[in-house]
Amino acid sequence: MEKTVKVSKPFMDDLKHTVFLWRKSRLTMIGSAIILIFLLMAAFAPLIAPYDPVHQDLQIKLQAPSWQHLFGTDQFGRDIFSRVIIGSRIALWIIFLVSVISGSIGIIVGVTAGYFGGIVDEVLMRITDMFLAFPSLVLAMAFAAMLGPNLTNTIIAISVVTWTTYARLSRAEAIKVKSQPYIEAIRAAGGGNLRIMFLHVLPMCISPVLVQLTLRMGTIILTAASLGFLGLGVQPPTPEWGAMVSDGRNYLIDQWWISTFPGIFIAFVVLGFNLLGDGIRDMLDPRLRR
Amino acid sequence: MVETLIKIRDLKTYFPVKKSIFSKKLFVRAVDNVNMDVPKGSTFAVVGESGSGKTTLARTVLRLIEPTSGEIEFEGKDILGLRGKDLLEVRRNMQIVFQDPYNSLHPRKLIKNIIGEGMKIHFKISEIEIRDRIASVLKEVGLIDDHMYRYAHEFSGGQRQRIAFARAIVLKPKFIVLDEPTSALDVSVQAMVLKMLKEIKVQENLTYMFITHNLSLVDYIADKVAVMYVGEVVEMGDKTTIFKHPSHPYTDLLMASNPIPDPKFVREKRLMKGEIPSSINPPSGCRFHNRCPFADERCAREEPELREIKPGHLVRCHYPL
User: Which domains does chain A have, with CATH numbers?
Assistant: First the structure.
């Protein structure tokens, strides 16, 4: 739908159209449902989880799934169902912090590069290129190994490798915006570079970055789980899904449930974010809109 | 003798053109050797085709672009070397209204913040005082104070231009550049906006630099006129003189191409040949010689000076009409 000059009604129509597109795409609906369940699970985790996720009881170790322990127990007798449920909070926390940190770094670097241009742009974007030159998981592993494995460092390591996309995006947007007359008017009014950059150019760069952030949330979980699996991420006994998959590795043949259930949850949440991200991208694509 | 508000001497604004590192450095000579005196309280019109450098001239005067060389004085003070506080004070006194009202207002900000931004930069005043001032400025430009809580996209082109103008006058400047302020508007709206510009100029004791390619507007609003061609001023003087006796062949042809709303008027067919030449590589001698109906070999060889043919009437031509 074309953006019109008049306000409220077209805005509402636009919103309705967005909802219409959302409902039309079944995959987007499924994605949204998965993410909604994931969020509810994280929100009410202590209520849902029947046992303490870190409580060890070696007498009931390696029990198969039963009504008592829905997903069975692991090698220390911990209830896997409880651990998976509580683990959703860890995953959500990682997603949230990584998005905030990498989003802010990306926007600030990108806007600075795009706004000043010239040598500043060259230097900042070459640094960005350096980060992009490595496969992101390898780089995240290097950072996690260097900083030492724990939750905070996992978040830092993932943030450090994911900000580049947002930097490139917001740089492009800043270059477009900075030459607009409304920015020049502020310079004519006496506004300095910092004021123009942060108060006037930056707000225009946020929305494309937000869309990209939702698209990348699946990747963030996957990276966190990979780090956890490799032992470079969150450390035991914290119930992080990737680390749980890793825990069950040695028992995979006989006690399949230890690795399988957290694995299924990782798969579903990543799938949910990817479906939702694709849907959001399509909904915002002007060519697919009316 | 009327006081001069803005004095421009030998102003040059060149933009480098990147070709390759081996070729000779080339420049777009957007503004080339411009001399101008803008009298206080006047409306000084700058006329010319697209690409003649009129917008670059205005932006250079406001120090939105740094000139290559030359001098600009504002109230007798050189402004080109200014920095920090002094520059800020000059900026407050010189404002601009852009041509396109659709991208001259920030799309994500309330009108209140668009207009109030300058006040936050220059004055230490409270939120309430800012609001009151915005309300009174909005009234002045023919809007109502409720409009300050809306976004730019809620307004029509004419209203947006009024908002842009409110933003310019809110700092109580002495000098405003109007860069084709009405060319993006409907004809009916144009008239109203022009009338408002004229009224506020008297009320607020302003000086305008009015950039346009529409000669009818010049006739309506201007006191003095400078005609620009490929970065140079080719003719300058009082509006009446220039409209009655255009002395440069280019001005003459411009006048002849201006439509006159009279069905009985039969125009002699005089069309300008060719396009405006490139300002990277302007023609030798007189820059207009290849399009001029009166040019001879002297025009191709020798560049004419801008000289006074009558008091206050300057022409850059070997054979003024």
Answer: 93-260 (1.10.3720.10)
